[in-house]
Design brief:
Blueprint: H1 2-5, H2 27-31, H3 33-63, H4 68-94, H5 98-121, H6 127-155, H7 161-190, H8 192-211, E1 218-219, H9 230-242, H10 245-275, H11 280-308, H12 310-328, H13 336-367, H14 370-401, H15 404-423, H16 438-444, E2 450-451
Antiparallel strand pairs: 1-2
Helix pairs in contact: 3-6, 3-7, 3-8, 4-6, 4-9, 4-10, 4-14, 5-6, 5-8, 6-14, 7-8, 7-11, 7-13, 9-14, 10-12, 10-14, 10-15, 11-12, 11-13, 12-13, 12-15, 14-15
Length: 452
Amino acid sequence: MAADAGDASEQTRGGRDESEHPTRTWEVLARHGNFRKLFLGNSISLLGSSVTTVALPLTSVVYLHASPTQMGLLGAMGLLPHLVLGLPAGVWADRVPYRRVLTITDFAQTLVLGSVPILATCGLLRMWHLYAVVLFAGVANLFETIAAQSFTPLLVPREELLPANSALMLSNATVNTTGSALGGLLVTVLSAPMAVAVDALSFLVSGMCKASIRHSGRIADSVTTRDLSLRTDILEGLRAVFSHRILRAVILAAAIGAFAGQLQAVVLVLFFVRDLHLSSGLVGAAIAVSGVAGILGATMATWFTRRIGTGRAFICGVLLASSGGLVVAAAVGPSPMSLFILLLAQVLRGIGPSIYGVNQQTLRQAVIAPSLLSRANATWRFLVFGGQSLGALVGGMSGSVLGLRATLIASGCMMLVGASTAIASPLRSLRELPARQVLGEKSTAQRPTWIR
């Protein structure tokens, strides 16, 4: 265990000067075995989840004949845990070894998602079942993501966080592309509910991969040596994010964009099926186009960021993503021109999030001290993903009242407001990663140290 734990402390290999030879995206996987296992587990579970991204909405729309309001509620249920449990989840995850959190949550999602094809086979599947499945899977995903994002800085050194996050984002985009195409195929061949079984199996394999990581991610004496006040710990996480002017600007832009983006996302499949009259296969293909663009964005994220600077790369990514909804709203029917417009929109919706996602995650991991990171990540998910749950509800109601196309336009304009918040901030002149904040360093002196 000690040998692999040393991965995180190695600054160079073979005497290389990192400032002269920046780490490439895939080199970080070759250097750090524990990070490679985390990467592999995440990639496998993401492949299954990308199938569910296509299969679950189609299960609701085609198999259960869901209304726009029901689709909005379904989207909200998956994000509701971030709103209700987002802040305390960071505190609780901080008190348990990250490896244990990752394995338990993966195995839990195996059981939860596996219930969908079983109920469908028995003819018992109903919308309220999907609400429950999405809710419980959302709780597990909340803890899993907080733990994974907080674990990464323990497995790779600070100067390799950008390529490490680029590798994770590249994996995300790649498996989403494969999974979306596979999802459309499986829905056609097996039916939408049965395709969800692939996701359940992927979490089982992912949990086994993460259980083999030789680094516990544990805080020494985490329960006995620190203040157990939930309120105090939550406030420290909030302060870690909002006391830093760069992080404050990023989270404000992200929260606004996330609310509007989810408002848009819950009506997108309905717009494809009911307004553009696309088949299940074409819906999967459209989502896959976004994934291909995401691969491109993740591939170029490290190079692009080092060329124009961290802050400007984040802003560019937000602007590209914000434009996608406005472009897709211009498509009318299944004509060749509409398909071209849809293609362009999906490219923007794919490449933008990869670029800004890599940079916002790297900023958090590089600036916030490890002892505060799980709570800061929880604060982030509470504001950004909790806001998405509200956006899903508003999107469902807006789709019913205003119409699907009007909802896409309104959400796109709102996302541009989030982008303007980033443009008006110090992000526009930020080129390098800022120094770790004083607050985080001061807090670590009063809190337990990390052990391998």
